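WARN retry 2 of 3 for item q-0093 after timeout on previous attempt; input resubmitted unchanged.
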Amino acid sequence: MVAQIKNWISRRMAVGAFSKRLDVLRFALTRSFWTTIAAVCLNFAVYQLFWRLGFLNVTLPPDPWADAVVTAFVAGPICFLAYYLIGKAIRDLAISRDAFERLSRTDPLTGLMNRRAFIDVISALDRPYVVAVLDIDRFKVINDTHGHAAGDAVLVEFSRELRRVFGRDAAVARLGGEEFGVILRDRAKEETIAAMDLVRAALATRTFDGEGAPISVTFSAGVARGDGKIGYSVWLTHADKALYLAKAAGRNRIVHSDDILAAVSGTEKPVGKIAV
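OK item q-0093 returned
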């Protein structure tokens, strides 16, 4: 019985049945009405049973209708209060669960999606898309020069700028540290590079406040096109490798994963360890 109640509560929460106060009131009124009707019927049945069995010398009430009204007036308010408190508890639990779910999927510093939420979004895609991995150039220097508080401020402002320039059509996440992920609608390689380069140029021309000291920020990015068929990890790996090439080529630039083939075939010189 306990398991069934838990399952019922979970199912009701899953469909948003207790998302509003009106839902709680409706739940309490409906349940208390039918419970009161059941109490009145049970009252009649118990009187009849005890009277026929001669149990405790119980006799039938002289006015059954008056007895039914009294039973309803006693049981109704008690049932309503009990169901209202239960409904309110379920609603509070649903709100708490939703809040926890949002927190578990949100980066606490920037308010962007975190890596978990980003992976959930990209793994659910069943059509072609573009994924980009961005990394702020020489972020360690910003922390060492201006302090970690200034570094955090840069991350917050950088995140706001990403949301502004990419708009609602893109999913933007902070993957960790100074690394960000973006999922864009499908487009050709040239269009992808052009769109990303506009973002890069826009961010390169503005400065961020580092507790009174202006900080210039650039980023490097690797881009890959996912087909929506092969697992997302393949394309995310390709984007990471393209980001590596962008860093190796001097930072502050965009590299498409298609360019990796050219690098492997020998048109690009091998690169050593890259400082970020």
